[in-house]
């Protein structure tokens, strides 16, 4: 690996889902979007569900990740997440239907709030929205 690229590894409970090198990686953290460039300082953050993208030359590739952690060390970014989906593997129509269903469930909760139930639905909503953004970027 050269010092002009970042090693990106995305890991789920099913194993290593993606291993590549990139000029830049953008992930959504609990503080907002974070750009990781070559030779980035050591860093660890929570990852929010959504679109992650990485750039190699002029090519930008998007994918979706669920909640997890990201760690940068020695020019390598490791994202440990519950779920991962490559943009090309996402069924837009199915995701849009699922998102509409989640939004309907969330609107019902506001009539009888349950924080735990809302958090779970909101996390699922963010995952689906990330999948849609990734698929539309492909």
Secondary-structure blueprint of this entry?
Blueprint: E1 6-12, E2 15-22, E3 24-29, E4 32-36, E5 43-47, E6 50-56, E7 59-65, E8 68-73, E9 76-81, E10 84-86, H1 92-109, H2 115-137
Features of this protein?
5-stranded mixed β-sheet, alpha+beta, 5-stranded antiparallel β-sheet, ATP Synthase, domain 1, 138 residues, 2 helices, 10 strands, globular
Give structural notes.
- It is a single chain.
- The chain is of the alpha+beta class and 138 residues long.
- It has one domain: ATP Synthase, domain 1 (Sandwich), CATH 2.60.15.
- The chain is 30% helix and 43% strand.
- It contains 2 helices and 10 strands.
- The protein has helices spanning 92-109, 115-137; strands spanning 6-12, 15-22, 24-29, 32-36, 43-47, 50-56, 59-65, 68-73, 76-81, 84-86.
- Strands 2-1-9-8-5 form a 5-stranded mixed beta sheet, with no helix packed on it. Strands 4-3-6-7-10 form a 5-stranded antiparallel beta sheet.
- Helix 1 (92-109) packs antiparallel against helix 2 (115-137).
- The model has no long low-confidence stretch (mean pLDDT 90).
